[in-house]
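Re: the request from the purification team.
They wanted to know what the chain is likely to look like in 3D before they choose a buffer screen. I agreed to run a prediction and write the result into the notebook, where they can find it.
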Amino acid sequence: MKREGRTTKPITRQWLNIAAEDLDVGQSMLDSGRYLYAGFQAQQCTEKALKAVIEENTGRPLKIHDLVVLAKTAGLDAGFQESILVLSPYYIATRYPEEREELSGRTNMDVAKQLLQTAREVLEWAKKRLT
């Protein structure tokens, strides 16, 4: 069980650290003009931040990539859950040529910035819940 105001599990800290690394890589991708990959890293950061909360609270990490299910399980506010919906395509679509091309065509600098901002907010939310 989580002690109030403190992350108790080393695995939870690892999830948060990896999420922060993903966010840093996403920023590097943004800075280098690789917007699709910035979106992918934003999705990864969000997924891992949510998994950190789930791991800490339940001890059972969900081995899925569905951000909606992860957000609900982690207890993310319903309004915030809607803002992460735009991140989900960046997990699958970056892997398949047809989807990748379509997604790449609509992921410009402004979109990538917003995706990274959403990921940053989810990571901060997770940190506040856990530390």
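For the purification team: The mean pLDDT is 90.
Please add any questions underneath this entry.
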